[in-house]
Write a structure and sequence with these properties.
rod-shaped
């Protein structure tokens, strides 16, 4: 392998790490926005249930007030009935009392309906309030963790940029220029590719035999004729030979 390849391999490793941390840094605010959006939807649902429960109680209170008014009217009508001068007046008072009593029954029936409707609302509100309390605590915890993670990631990125600056200083200008050119072409994704079985592992295209031999010699830095990536070759390791050499040594 050409010795300068190690320099750009180091650059590629640093750039990949920087890109990974920057991606996470960009992702965390979106994650927080999503969980806050979910929390807001639950808050709005709870507010709607509370409003429905309040309206239910308001309607019941009004009906109960109407019943009291009706009962007062009936009481007065009964007093007037005792003072009726003839049978027609008596019947008129009785008819009015019957009408008001019917209104009272309607109001009582409606109150029962509202009470039936309020029961699940009350259960939902209590459950939602308990769940929301837990959810708010979890969201706050996640937000704090995200802020801490972002701060840690930013420190890592700063350190990696410092290491990259040192690696850039050690890289020959011409090779650095080639590296940046190929990196831009592939939008920062792995400008180097290993050669295995005479094939570029970046684009999976087979190399010309002579091109492969030139890369194996490592006299100069070469690129893939198909995808343009900088190529490097790691000769296979003969494990048995290495073990034999160690034993012999």
């Amino acid at each position: 392998m050409n010795p300068d390849i190690h320099l750009v391999l180091q650059l590629q490793s640093l750039d990949n790490q920087i890109a990974s941390f920057e991606k996470e840094i960009a992702t965390l605010p979106r994650h927080i926005a999503e969980i806050e959006k979910t929390l807001d939807s639950h808050i709005r649902r709870l507010d709607a249930d509370r409003a429905a429960l309040t309206a239910n109680q308001r309607d019941r209170n009004k009906l109960e007030g109407d019943i009291q008014v009706h009962e007062q009217k009936i009481s007065k009508l009964r007093d007037q009935t005792l003072q009726a001068k003839n049978n027609e007046q008596y019947k008129a008072f009785q008819n009015e009392i019957s009408f008001i009593q019917a209104e009272i029954r309607k109001a009582e029936d409606r109150i029962l309906e509202l009470m039936t409707e309020s029961e699940p609302l009350e259960v939902n509100v209590k459950k939602a309030e308990a769940a929301l309390k837990t959810e708010k605590a979890e969201v706050d915890s996640e937000k704090n963790a995200a802020r801490e993670r972002t701060a840690a990631d930013q420190r890592e990125v700063e350190q990696l940029h410092k290491e990259r600056e040192e690696a850039v200083k050690q890289t020959p200008p011409a090779l650095l220029k080639l590296y940046e050119k190929v990196r831009r072409k592939w939008h920062g994704r792995n400008p180097l590719a290993e050669v295995q079985d005479s094939r570029c592992m970046g684009c999976q295209i087979s190399l010309r035999p002579q091109h492969f031999q030139d890369i194996r010699r490592g006299d100069t830095v070469l690129t893939c004729e198909a995808c343009g990536r900088i190529l490097y070759y790691n000769p296979p390791v003969d494990v048995e030979k290495e073990m034999a050499d160690r034993q012999a040594g």
